[in-house]
Specification:
Low-confidence stretches: none
Number of helices: 1
Distance between the termini: 92 Å
Number of domains: 2
Strand content: 25-35%
Shape: elongated
Radius of gyration: 31 Å
CATH topology of the largest domain: Immunoglobulin-like
CATH architecture of the largest domain: Sandwich
Number of strands: 7
Helix content: 10-25%
CATH class of the largest domain: Mainly Beta
Protein backbone atom coordinates (compact mmCIF):
# COMPACT_ATOMS: atom_id res chain seq x y z
CA UNK A 1 0.00 0.00 0.00
CA UNK A 2 1.32 3.37 -0.99
CA UNK A 3 1.10 6.19 1.51
CA UNK A 4 -0.36 9.39 0.01
CA UNK A 5 0.89 12.76 1.11
CA UNK A 6 -1.62 15.47 1.87
CA UNK A 7 0.91 18.18 1.03
CA UNK A 8 1.96 19.30 -2.38
CA UNK A 9 0.09 19.75 -5.59
CA UNK A 10 -3.69 20.14 -5.10
CA UNK A 11 -3.45 20.66 -1.36
CA UNK A 12 -5.94 23.19 0.05
CA UNK A 13 -4.64 23.31 3.61
CA UNK A 14 -3.46 26.95 3.37
CA UNK A 15 -6.65 28.42 1.88
CA UNK A 16 -8.67 28.54 5.11
CA UNK A 17 -6.02 30.34 7.23
CA UNK A 18 -5.39 32.94 4.48
CA UNK A 19 -9.11 33.73 4.16
CA UNK A 20 -9.37 33.93 7.96
CA UNK A 21 -6.52 36.47 8.15
CA UNK A 22 -8.04 38.58 5.35
CA UNK A 23 -11.43 38.62 7.10
CA UNK A 24 -9.86 39.60 10.43
CA UNK A 25 -7.97 42.49 8.81
CA UNK A 26 -11.15 43.65 7.03
CA UNK A 27 -13.15 43.58 10.28
CA UNK A 28 -10.43 45.55 12.07
CA UNK A 29 -10.38 48.23 9.33
CA UNK A 30 -14.18 48.56 9.38
CA UNK A 31 -14.29 48.85 13.18
CA UNK A 32 -11.53 51.48 13.12
CA UNK A 33 -13.48 53.50 10.51
CA UNK A 34 -16.72 53.35 12.55
CA UNK A 35 -14.98 54.40 15.76
CA UNK A 36 -13.18 57.25 13.97
CA UNK A 37 -16.50 58.49 12.52
CA UNK A 38 -18.03 58.69 16.01
CA UNK A 39 -15.00 60.26 17.65
CA UNK A 40 -14.13 62.85 15.01
CA UNK A 41 -17.40 63.54 13.22
CA UNK A 42 -20.31 63.32 15.59
CA UNK A 43 -18.97 64.46 18.94
CA UNK A 44 -18.84 68.15 17.96
CA UNK A 45 -22.55 68.44 17.09
CA UNK A 46 -23.96 67.66 20.52
CA UNK A 47 -25.69 70.65 22.12
CA UNK A 48 -26.53 71.29 25.74
CA UNK A 49 -30.06 70.33 26.74
CA UNK A 50 -31.67 72.45 29.41
CA UNK A 51 -34.43 71.41 31.79
CA UNK A 52 -37.33 73.89 31.96
CA UNK A 53 -41.00 72.88 32.21
CA UNK A 54 -44.13 74.51 30.82
CA UNK A 55 -47.70 73.25 30.71
CA UNK A 56 -50.72 74.11 28.60
CA UNK A 57 -54.26 73.49 29.81
CA UNK A 58 -57.60 73.95 28.10
CA UNK A 59 -60.65 75.21 29.98
CA UNK A 60 -64.09 76.26 28.78
CA UNK A 61 -66.90 78.53 29.84
CA UNK A 62 -70.27 79.22 28.21
CA UNK A 63 -68.85 81.29 25.35
CA UNK A 64 -65.14 80.56 24.91
CA UNK A 65 -62.39 78.01 25.25
CA UNK A 66 -59.24 79.21 26.97
CA UNK A 67 -55.70 77.90 26.64
CA UNK A 68 -53.47 78.72 29.61
CA UNK A 69 -49.70 78.35 29.26
CA UNK A 70 -47.77 78.23 32.57
CA UNK A 71 -44.05 78.38 33.41
CA UNK A 72 -43.40 75.53 35.86
CA UNK A 73 -39.70 76.28 36.33
CA UNK A 74 -36.86 73.78 36.47
CA UNK A 75 -33.18 73.48 37.39
CA UNK A 76 -32.06 75.76 34.53
CA UNK A 77 -34.47 78.63 35.27
CA UNK A 78 -31.57 80.94 36.16
CA UNK A 79 -30.22 80.63 32.58
CA UNK A 80 -33.38 82.10 31.02
CA UNK A 81 -33.42 85.58 29.52
CA UNK A 82 -35.09 88.27 31.62
CA UNK A 83 -38.71 89.36 31.44
CA UNK A 84 -40.95 88.56 28.52
CA UNK A 85 -37.96 87.54 26.37
CA UNK A 86 -37.64 84.25 28.29
CA UNK A 87 -40.36 82.43 26.32
CA UNK A 88 -41.96 82.51 22.91
CA UNK A 89 -45.46 81.05 22.89
CA UNK A 90 -46.99 80.08 19.56
CA UNK A 91 -50.69 79.10 19.75
CA UNK A 92 -52.49 78.18 16.51
CA UNK A 93 -55.59 76.39 15.34
CA UNK A 94 -55.00 73.06 13.57
CA UNK A 95 -55.32 74.84 10.19
CA UNK A 96 -52.37 77.12 11.09
CA UNK A 97 -54.30 80.29 11.94
CA UNK A 98 -52.52 82.07 14.80
CA UNK A 99 -54.32 82.93 18.03
CA UNK A 100 -52.81 86.25 19.08
CA UNK A 101 -55.15 87.73 21.66
CA UNK A 102 -54.04 86.84 25.15
CA UNK A 103 -53.84 88.12 28.69
CA UNK A 104 -50.68 87.86 30.76
CA UNK A 105 -47.19 86.89 29.67
CA UNK A 106 -45.11 83.82 30.38
CA UNK A 107 -41.91 85.19 31.92
CA UNK A 108 -38.90 83.89 33.81
CA UNK A 109 -40.96 83.92 37.02
CA UNK A 110 -42.19 80.48 38.00
CA UNK A 111 -45.99 80.37 37.88
CA UNK A 112 -46.35 83.16 35.30
CA UNK A 113 -49.14 82.47 32.80
CA UNK A 114 -50.58 83.63 29.51
CA UNK A 115 -54.21 82.86 28.65
CA UNK A 116 -55.35 82.65 25.02
CA UNK A 117 -59.07 82.84 24.20
CA UNK A 118 -60.17 80.60 21.33
CA UNK A 119 -63.47 81.17 19.59
CA UNK A 120 -63.55 78.07 17.41
CA UNK A 121 -65.03 75.36 19.60
CA UNK A 122 -64.25 71.70 19.05
CA UNK A 123 -61.11 72.37 17.03
CA UNK A 124 -57.70 71.23 18.24
CA UNK A 125 -55.24 73.93 19.20
CA UNK A 126 -51.48 73.52 18.65
CA UNK A 127 -49.30 75.00 21.40
CA UNK A 128 -45.52 75.42 21.03
CA UNK A 129 -43.45 77.05 23.79
CA UNK A 130 -39.76 77.87 23.25
CA UNK A 131 -37.37 78.95 25.99
CA UNK A 132 -34.64 81.51 25.25
CA UNK A 133 -31.41 81.49 27.25
CA UNK A 134 -28.79 84.12 28.09
CA UNK A 135 -26.15 82.36 25.94
CA UNK A 136 -28.30 83.01 22.84
CA UNK A 137 -29.60 79.46 22.48
CA UNK A 138 -33.26 78.41 22.30
CA UNK A 139 -35.04 75.15 22.99
CA UNK A 140 -38.61 73.96 22.41
CA UNK A 141 -39.90 72.90 25.82
CA UNK A 142 -43.54 72.18 24.95
CA UNK A 143 -45.18 71.02 21.71
CA UNK A 144 -48.71 69.71 22.18
CA UNK A 145 -52.24 69.65 20.80
CA UNK A 146 -55.19 70.40 23.07
Amino acid sequence: MKKMSTYGKGSEDAVSPVIGVILMVAITVILAAVIAAFVFGMAGNVGKTRNIAATATKTSNATNNMITVTNNGGPDIADLMAGDQAFTTNVTYANGTAITGHTGTVTKDVGSTATYVTVQTGEKVHVIVSAHFTDGSSQVILDTYL
